[in-house]
Amino acid sequence: MLPPEWAQREAIRAQLSGLFSRWGYRGVEVPALEYASAHHPQDAVAFKLIDSGGQVLSLRSEFTTAVGRLVRTRYPHGPFPLRLQYSGRLWLRALNSELGRLREFNQLGVELIGVETARSDAELLHLAAAALREVGVGAALEVGYPGFVDAVLEDAGLHGAARAALHDAIDRKSGADVDLLCGQFGLGGDTRRTLHALTDLYGGPEVLDAAQGLARGTRAQEAVAHLRRVAALYAGPLLFDLGVSRRYDYYTGLTFRAYAPGLNQPVLGGGRYALEGGLPGAGFALGLERLMRALAGDLPPEPELVLALDLAAADAARAQGLHAELAWTDDRTELRAFSTARGIHRWASSQGGTLTFQPATEVTQ
Amino acid sequence: MTPAPTRDPGHLTLALPKGRILEDAIALLSQAGLPLTMPEKSRALRHEFPGVTVLELRNQDVPVYVDLGVADAGIVGKDVLIESGRTVYEPVDLKFAGCRLSLIREVGADGDIARIGTKYPRAARAYLNARGIPAEIVKLSGNIELACLTGLADAVVDLVQTGSTLRANNLEEVDVLFHSTARLVVNRAALKTRRERLRPLIERLRELTSQ
Description:
The complex is a heterodimer. By secondary structure, chain A is an alpha+beta fold.
C-alpha cells in the first residue's frame, strides 16, 4: 500500500471512527493472535499458527467473537447497553486474493451489546446509513431475517438434514434444487409452493406483506412483526430479502448489508447474534478495501505541502493548516530538484520572525 | 486491465460460456427480450450490445466472474456450478444442455475403488465422503474414460450425455451423482442493485422454460 491509498484508507477510518464516537461507541482493541478453538464461528477459515509450546493459535478472522470475550471478562455487568467500536486487520485462509475477496483486509465496525429491542436494531440501521453518508458512498441497505426461513421450514415439518439442505437451496434462490429436495423428502403442494416463494422474497417493503402471507407459526409471524417495527422506526428506504438464510444458526435476529451502485460486493454487513453465555448483541462492520473501491478515485482533498527552509517556518506553516517538509540542506539546486519531483510548489521561510513564501521554481541565487 | 466502458446503472454484463452453450444461451436470452445476436466469428472476447455486454468465457470461469461481480449474471451448467463451489444465486433452470455426472467403471468391474480419475474433484470428493470410500482422486483434463481402460484409476467420475462413448469403450455407469442442466446464475449484490432489469429477465426465462 502506497501513500495515496494509505491516505484515503486512513481518512475513511478517521471519519468513521469519529462518527462512531459521536454516537457513543467507545474504541477497543483485541489481539490479532487468538487461541484456536473449534467453537469459533470462523474456525474453519482462520489461519493457524503453532507457538513454541505446541499450542495452536489462530490469526484474527472476525472481531465479534473477540469483542464478546472482552465484554464477558471485563464488563460482565455492563452497564448495558454497551457500545463499542473496533478497527483493524483480519485474515482468512479460505479466500484467494481475488478481486474484492482478500485474504488480508481491514474492517471497522461497532457492537451494541446487552439489549435486544426493535429500537436497538433500528439504531444500527441508522448508524450504518450515517456511516455510508459520512464517507460519501450512496448505498442501499437491505434487511434479512435468517430465522424467518428457519421458522417457515419448521412449520413445514422439516428437521435435521432436510432442513439444512433446504436452507442452502433457498439461500442460493435455486428453485431447481428446492424441487429436487422436495422430491427427495416427499414434500408437495402447499409446502413446495411456500418454499419456492421464499426464493423470490426480495425487493421493497411489499416483501413484508408477502412474508406475512407465508408465516403460519408464531415464530415466523413474530419475525415479520419485528421487521415491521424496525422498518417503522428506521423510516428510511430499505430493501428486504427474507430468503437470506446464510448462517441461520449464528444470527438470532435480523441481518443487514449495504450495496453500493456499480460494486457487486456488499460494502457493509451485520446482524443480531447471541454472545457466548447468552448475552444479546448486534453490530456491523465495513470493509475498508471495498469502500475504497466504491469510492474509486474520489480521494479526499489534502492540504498543500510546502518545503520549509527552517524549523520556525515549518511550525508556522503547519499552524496555518499546511503540511510542511523540512529542508535538509542549503543546496538550492538539490532542493529545487526535490520540489519538482515531489510536486511542491512553494517554499516557506521565516526571516525576521514572519512567515514568507516563495515559488519553488524561482531562481534565487 | 482495459477498464470497461462507463455503464448506466441499468447496464448488464453477462458471462456466457463459449462454444455450443453460447448459441443456445444467446437464442434463449434474445427470446427473453435482450437485444443479443450471435457474435460474428472473430477474436473478440467482449461483445457490446445496447445495454448489455457479453463476456465470452471458458465455462469453468463463468461462476468465478459472476461470484466476484465482474459479470452481473451468466449461464452455466449445474455440473460446473457445483464443481466451482461459488455462492451465486441460481434462480432459473434453463433446461438445456442436459447431462448427468456419473460414476463409471469397466463393464463387470467389482473390486474396491482405490483411485478415481475425474475432471470434477470436488463433486467426486463429496460423493466419496458421503459413502465413506477413502479413495484417492486424480484430477484429469480430458478423455477421462481412458483412465479406467488403462488402469490409471479403478473408476472415473464424468459427464454422460447419451452413453454411446461408454458403450463403445466397454464401460458402464455404476451410479449417478446428479443430473445437470444449464442454469441462469446471478451475482448476489447485482440481483438487488440491478433488480429492475434482472427480475423481469428471470420471470421471462421462467415462462420460456416451463413446459
